[in-house]
Amino acid sequence: MISGSLPVGALGTPEDKTVPELLPQASTTHTYDFKVTKTGTITIPPAKVTYYDEEGRLYEESSSGATVTVVGTPALEVTHSVNPPEAKVGEEVEVSITITNTGDGTADNVRVTFTPPMGLEPKEGQPTTVTLGRITPGQKKMPKFYLIANESGEITIPGDSIVIEYSDEMGETRTATSAASQTLKVSKPISPVALAMVLVIVLLIVAVLIAGRGKRPKVAEERPPAPPPEEAPRIPVTRRAPAPPLRTGPRPGGLPSRTRPRGLPQRKK
Question: What are the structural domains, with CATH classification, of the chain?
Answer without folding.
Answer: 2-70 (no CATH), 76-187 (2.60.40.10)
